[in-house]
Amino acid sequence: MTETATTVDALDVLIVGAGISGIGAAHYLTTQLPGTSFAILEGRDRMGGTWNLFKYPGIRSDSDLHTFGFAFKPWTDKQSIADASRILDYLQEAIGEDGIGDKIRYQHKVISANWSSAECRWTVDVERGDTGETTQIKARWLFSGAGYYNYDEGYTPEFEGRDRFTGQVIHPQHWPEDLDYAGKKVVVIGSGATAVTLLPAMAEKADHVTMLQRTPSYILPLPKHDPVANIGRAVLGDERGYALARWKNILQQRVLFEACQRFPKTARRVIRGVNKKLLPEGFDVDTHFNPPYNPWDQRLCAVPDGDLFRTIRQGKASVVTDRIKTFTEKGILLESGQELEADIIVTATGLNLQLFGGVKLNLDGEPIAINESIVYRGFMLSGIPNFALAIGYTNSSWTLKVGLLCEHFVRLLAYMDARGYPAVRPIADSTMETRPLLDFGAGYVQRSMDWLPRQGVSEPWSMSMSYYKDRKSFAMDVADPNLEFTKQLPAADVQEKADAVSA
Q1: In the predicted model, what is the mean pLDDT of the chain?
Q2: Closest by alpha carbon to 86, among 185, 225, 213?
Q3: Do domains 7-151+352-502 and 156-349 have the same CATH topology?
Q4: Cα 297–243–148 angle (5° rounding)?
């Protein structure tokens, strides 16, 4: 690989990731701060983030697109729970409508970033996949739209005897596009959103699909087509119909979450009743659909039009709740002594967390210990200047929070520009009580607690998961006493401006 260290740009904002968060940030910069220079760096050769990366059968949203979509762009497709190709089309339309296509630099992978207090700028090292070169970009602000997953490698636990299995073992994150599973026995290990998506999708061609789970998840059917949204659009038009559906679904999500949190026993009974009604008569609901935790201690899985339950009723798929003892030549031997025969085993065992796409952050040449920082309003980190990140909700649609924080981010930039502030950083009290960043029981979160940032116990240092609460919080004045603004430009910039005036 040829390595160079030439600086190719000096920008106001550098956005990392051309997924839904990065595209959203670009929209608000374009429409609300049109004089701001920015670029989006995308490590892969296509936009879309998650929706471009995953290729497994049936991949779809697990939130309705009227809330997962952008506030500024109506979702006009009839599908409410939508497949990946429709979401990619929607994102491509958003890029075209804002004219930001030429701002995206594909095959540009950010490796590291160093903040210079003397310059009040980030210097970002970028590896170009198309040329093999390493270049540098300077930027006043760094905005991470890369989410919190490791997109290079999924999580697969160690399975005893895996090498003995004579069939194929596949992780959904690395799905072979030419995989032929027609007429074959498939075992999907897992019980989360990916597993419940794969089961009905693969059952259309496979001989039989078995979902093998150690612990059940809460699963609820949602309509694939939202009649209120579709009728609303037909009567009120795209924008007002979309707004109606969006607010209806925001309220619906919040009511469901609050009900589950406040009345967990009742919520458990209701969900069990729905599951029992949709499953075959005599199905062992209490073994296979009865999680040991309360609803919304982990994310609920949505299945459009109850497709998972329908596939089970039709006998094309089954659920086994047990622990794996070992892989065998023909499949999987369970601790109960049962052996599941398989031609293909899919390890839908989750993802690994990785903030900022694995970018190494430095402050004046010294590595930044992210786990020692505290999140500020869910989009900045204590002690780190001019750095923003987009982390959406875990209990409702990701994009709802991303939209709010992007708008606040742009307001913060406008405030700083109007007053000549080149830099800002949140300052946290060293005696502040803290707790984990994500108060969520999912395995991928629990495995990563030690290196994630922390959150406080009250605003603005808490990681709110309430859209209504965040609307009020992000609407507040950006001039917060918890923020430290640099009050004058670095000496080099002052001299540069003086030279420009004298010339």
Answers
A1: 91
A2: 225
A3: yes
A4: 40
pLDDT digits (tens, 9 = 90+) for 340-381: 999 999 999 887 777 788 889 999 999 999 889 999 999 999
Q: Note the CATH number of domain 7-151+352-502.
A: 3.50.50.60
- Supply the pLDDT for residue 501: 40
d(CA 146, CA 44): 12
Number of neighbours of residue 7 by Cβ within 10 angstroms: 11
Contacts of 309 (CB under 8 A, 6+ apart): 221, 275, 278, 279, 303
Domain 156-349 part of CATH 3.50.50.60: yes
The answer to whether 431 and 437 are in contact (CB under 8 A) is: no
Neighbour count for residue 64 (Cβ, 10 Å): 29
The Cβ of residue 4 has, within 10 Å, a number of other Cβ atoms equal to: 12
What distance in Å separates the CA atoms of residue 124 and residue 108, rounded to the nearest whole number? 11
Beta strand pairing status for 121-128 and 108-116?
A: antiparallel
Query: Prior bond to 460 cis, omega within 30?
Result: yes
> Which alpha helices (DSSP H) does 263-333 contain, by range?
264-278, 285-288, 307-313
Distant-in-sequence, close-in-space partners of 47: CB < 8 Å, separation ≥ 6: 18, 19, 23, 88, 91, 92, 95, 104, 106
Interatomic CA distance for residues 494 and 367, integer angstroms = 28
Assign residue 186 a region: left if phi > 0, alpha if psi is -120 to 50, beta otherwise?
Answer: beta
Other C-beta atoms closer than 10 Å to the C-beta of 367 total 11
- Per-domain boundaries in the chain: 7-151+352-502, 156-349
Q: If you count DSSP H runs as helices and E runs as strands, how many of each does the chain have, helices first?
A: 14, 27
> Helix or strand or coil: residue 423?
strand
Residues in Cβ contact with 41 at an 8 Å cutoff, skipping those fewer than 6 apart: 14, 15, 16, 17, 18, 105, 108, 109, 110, 126, 137
Q: In the numeric block, which tokens belong to residue 491?
A: 């000496």
Distance CA 393, CA 476 (A): 20
Instruction: State how far the Cα of 393 lies from the Cα of 375, in Å rounded to an integer.
Output: 15
pLDDT at 429: 92
**Residue type for position 402:** V
Q: With a cut of 70, which residues of the chain have pLDDT below it?
A: 1-8, 439-450, 488-503
Q: Residue 329 carries which DSSP code?
A: S
* Distance of alpha carbon 393 from alpha carbon 391, whole angstroms: 7
pLDDT value at position 353?
Answer: 77
- Look at the chain and count its residues: 503
The reported pTM is: 0.91
Candidates 156, 185, 192; CA nearest to 168 is: 185
- At residue 98, the 3 state secondary structure works out as helix
CB 123 within 8 A of CB 136: yes
Output DSSP code: residue 41: E
| Unique residue bearing structure tokens 């001989």 | 207
Identify the H or E element spanning 138: strand 134-144
Residue 132 is predicted with a pLDDT of: 84
